[in-house]
Amino acid sequence: MSSNTIKTIATSAIFACATALSGHASAHVVLEYQVAPAGASYKATFKVGHGCGASPTRQVVVDIPDGFRGARPQPKPGWTLDVQRGKLATPYTSHGRNVTEDTTRITWTARTAEDALPSAHYDEFVLVGQTPEQAGMLYWPVRQICAQGRNDWTEVPQPGQKLHDLKSPAAALEVLPQAGGSAHQH
Questions:
Q1: pLDDT-derived band of residue 2, with 50, 70 and 90 as boundaries?
Q2: Can you give the C-alpha Rg of the chain in angstroms?
Q3: Entry pTM
Q4: d(CA 123, CA 19)
Q5: Contact call for residues 123 and 114 (beta carbons, < 8 A)
């Protein structure tokens, strides 16, 4: 990866972190790192900073955007995992194998009321996979189900609209162009 690409990613990451720490951004589920290079391994860390009013979060559901490959969740103590898979419109090759279906949704569910995330606390829900080969924006719809109520962070900006203008924005990841084809290919 070229030093200019690394500088661009670092600058974007600093900006994204500063944005995430602002009052408005922390009001919804966001990604810890909001930029990543195309065709690279990516750790998606979804930051959940509150429940539904005073109600604790008992379930977090993440829809995997088209083009993101091989999503695998990180288990959380006290939470069960459900990984849904679906047929791909366009199969791809990974490690010499033809992949015709992939992860479409990951759900973390608290096993008991005591395992749920209290509204006054913060936690992270993590998955890994590979970004698309093409640069562009990826939007991750996230549903946060609480003991009482829910928050659907699923809105995607329309052309000319800004993410921060939305009431319930989906988590966003900007995929940057590859630097000279140096990404790990699958």
A1: low
A2: 17
A3: 0.81
A4: 18
A5: no
Of 60, 140, 175, 150, give the one whose Cα is nearest residue 107.
60
How much is the average pLDDT of 75-98?
Answer: 93
Amino acid (one-letter) located at 161? Q
Q: How high is the pLDDT of residue 28?
A: 84
Tell whether the model's pLDDT for residue 185 goes beyond 80.
Answer: no
Angle value at C-alpha 146, between 79 and 144, nearest 5 degrees: 80
* Residue 31: pLDDT over 80: yes
3-state helix, strand, coil in the chain (%, to 5): 15, 45, 40
Give me the sign of the Cα torsion angle 33, 37, 39, 41: negative
**CA distances for 2 relative to 7, 8, 122, angstroms:** 9, 10, 35
Q: Quote the longest CA-to-CA distance of the chain.
A: 50
For 98-121, write each residue's pLDDT tens digit.
999 999 999 999 999 999 999 999
Instruction: Dig out the tokens for 171 from the structure.
Output: 């988590």
> Which two three-digit tokens encode residue 23?
């009052």
Q: Kindly state the tokens that stand for 99.
A: 């992949």
Q: Which two tokens stand for residue 33?
A: 């790192």
